Amino acid sequence: MNETFQAAKARYQSVEIPPELDFAVAAALREGERRRRRLRRRGGTLASLAACCASFVLLVNASPAFASAVYQVPVLGDLARVVTVTEYSIADEERLIDVRMPAVEDTGNTDLEQRINTEIQTRIDAILAEAQARAEETRAAFVATGGNPDEFIPVTISVDYEVKCQSSQYLSFVVLKTETKASAYTELFCYNIDLETGRELTLQDMLGPDYKEIANQVIREEIARRSQDPDNVYFDGTDGIEGFQSITADQRFYINGNGNPVVIFEKYEIAPGYMGQQEFEIPVPQA
Question: Which residues form the DUF3298 domain (predicted)?
């Protein structure tokens, strides 16, 4: 065991930090030092730890080469299964675009990885193409109705991702697309992978054949509980807008740190816009 660890340690220490990240790492360390001085003895350890963690996450996300090398270290491999493979910005008179694209690796199923990564690439390409077309149409309409081209506010598009669960059993992450003009609109794409079988999971896989009934009951009870707060409003049909009825066969969800599916309803689906995105954790039935 000690031999394995020492070999892993040596391999990790041999990883070369990309030169272009020197400045970013130094900045993170300087920030840690500033926090250390502010918090003095009590906060020093936390600030230093935060700086180190920030540096590691930055390296893994910003450098596929560094992340690939980290995968070879058994001690750290479980921390780096989703990495940023592409990150870029576009700014012109019609649009402001920021993209951070993830890729899945080290699942033990290369076919699955290729399919998911290709799907993500294709999906993001389509999102950007559609956004470009809308931005051109919006600007053209603005100018055609007498607007000053110099006063046109570009459409803002952000594509990012969040890792929701990363364990020895599950890998779950969400790709988020946010488009902002007069208001913000967010669209989500969820990926839930069983690392033991190497395949994507469904709600039925996690909750069993009665998954709809199980999820619907939890959601109805939680809506009733949240509605006790007068500031929380859900559609219930009284204003001609149908409220929650049932989840669908392709209901969006992610897996949280507890290993439970979390069902997602986007803004306006089951509640007014001010309520934002609604999420409901569905406990996995005990065998």
Answer: 205-283
